[in-house]
User: Fold this.
Amino acid sequence: MVKEKKRYTADLIIPVYKPTKQFKKTLKRIDAQTRRPDRIILMNTEEQFFDKTVLEGIPYAEVHHIKKSEFDHGGTRNQGASMSNADILIFMTQDAIPANCHLIEQLLEPFEDEQVSAVYAQQMADEKKSPIEAYTRTFNYPNESRKKTIDDLETLGIKTFFCSNVCAAYRKKDYEEVGGFIKKTIFNEDMIMASLLIENGKAIYYNAKAKVWHWHDYSAMEQLHRNFDLAVSQQTYGGLFLKVKSESEGIRLVIATIKHLLQIGKWYLIPKLVWQSGFKFIGYKMGRSYEKLPKWLIKKLTMNREYWEEK
Assistant:
């Protein structure tokens, strides 16, 4: 006898700021899914910048406005989650674009396994527009799906609790059990949540069949700022983050990317890769030692000055 699949209720929560025409197209793609979310909850920063036309034709979408001073990576998402009574909370960023009409369906599928508390999607980049980003995406988001538990900590290290709110879903009861996303975090609320779930004996599932287009062409300095904040979040939170090293993963990625660029004949991009990777490494190392740095230097290194003003 075939076991009948459970039908979960699922709400989609997206923090938005100055939504563009592309975001309007993204909502249309979500509306065209084989399994649409029951509600779309938009947490918009600054009402004056919100284009109301993005909601046209999507009656189950709603918007809630907050001030810029109120925005917090974890807190704002928690606020959206508090408005939902769904079994599954799906989070996306406004610049993530569903690659096909099966995204929501594929995000929900792994929850048939009761141990799975979170599922995240594969992120892809256009190889023609950004060869380096396209390859690094395949390194961090391979074509093979994987279930991760605390037993993988020794072999996967920090990747055990790799998870991204660019496109991820959480079982609401498990999310609530660990207290939701950490509030007043500079960055990385998704991986902190994943580490808590892993510590709680739950599993994180990477579903390579759930796909979104998402990438950035950051400058070297932007990479430094981003990695500084990433490391600050890990150092501040502590927990499992202080028990694993991530530098070796970065080195492995650089070596693999150099080989890939040579194979596809784009050797001329290697200096850019090395330059940017150096800035990433510097940002990360300084972030892990941020407590020893003067505040004026921290403000130069961060991409989130408001966090430090409050701190």
